[in-house]
Amino acid sequence: MITFIYDSIAWEEKEIIKKLQAEGIKLNLVNAKDNALKLTEKLNFNGPAFIRCMSARRSLYYSYILESHGIITINSYNTFNIAGNKIFTTSYLYKNGIRTPDTVVSFSHDNALASATEMGYPLVFKPASGSWGRMISLLENENIAETVFSMNDMVSENSYYLQRYVKRPPRDIRAIVVGNRISATIYRYSGDGWKTNLALGGKVEKAELSEDEMEILIKTSELFDPGIIGIDAMETDEGLVVHEVNSRVEFKGASKVYGNKIINDIVEFLKELD
Questions:
Q1: Which of 257, 249, 264, 272 is nearest to 79 (CA)?
Q2: In terms of pTM, does the model score above 0.85?
């Protein structure tokens, strides 16, 4: 039996559940929003727990609590913890020799402005956590930086993640990782703006990558516990740079060009754990 933990059912969750049921796998469906966890009593969960919460914090809490009770979680607490925070992700990639864009994190408004001036514009501002390109901003000058940092002051814990703007083609690369294997690679093209997020109108096509590019993606995937993640990378004159890792990767767009392959790979991986 597999325990499937969710807080909202999107296309990916529907398709995975449908395929697991078609394969005759017993499922224990748990809505994380409606389920209290008794921390000081034995938890009654059967089999591994596949966590697909939209809320990064729920995923983090569930994975840690369940692992503390000896239950295997997909993804693991370490993966949710690192990939769910861009500051941690960048530090972890750098520590392990994966090329990533030059990045600075500041912890006050004034210091962030000084750091931006020192790095030089344009820069990309990102919140430490979040998805779908929300609040990611292109800082072309100090006036824009001042405006964005003022907005950030009102909604965050006062961390300012600044990444050097990478000159790249109007696309980036997303790899869908299942286990520690690359299941699919796609190019994500910008829509009307500079962001490549499909939620913002980007488009996809299959990515035909070189051996060197695949090697970087594979090496990155192997830094994380076996699970289901997304790796986002950009093409530069010096080769690929990895800029994000997604611990709740969406693949509806990738499935438009890969068909059922990603779903099938995920289900086969989960069956091996059951």
A1: 249
A2: yes
| String of DSSP letters for 101-145 | --EEEESSHHHHHHHHHHH-SSEEEE-SS--TTTT-EEE-SHHHH
- Please report, for residues 23, 83, 157, 244, 262, the alpha-carbon distance to residue 130 in angstroms, rounded to integers and kept in the order given: 33, 11, 13, 11, 23
Low-confidence ranges of the chain (pLDDT < 70): 131-133, 156-157, 191-202
Residue pointed to by tokens 């994500």: 188
pLDDT tens-place string over residues 163-201: 999 988 889 999 999 998 999 999 998 766 556 555 555
Q: Please tell me the predicted confidence (pLDDT) of residue 193.
A: 57
Report strand pairing: 73-74 vs 49-52. parallel
Per-residue pLDDT at 200: 53
Cα-to-chain-centroid distance, residue 134: 13
Q: What is the pLDDT of residue 196?
A: 56
Can you give the length of the chain in residues? Answer: 274
229: left (phi over 0), alpha (psi -120 to 50) or beta: beta
H or E stretch including 187? Answer: strand 181-189
Spell out the residues 6+ positions from residue 146 whose beta carbon is closer than 8 angstroms to its own.
Answer: 113
CA distance 26 to 15: 15
Listed in sequence order, the DSSP H helices in the chain are 11-22, 56-68, 77-83, 86-95, 109-119, 142-155, 211-221, 252-258, 261-273
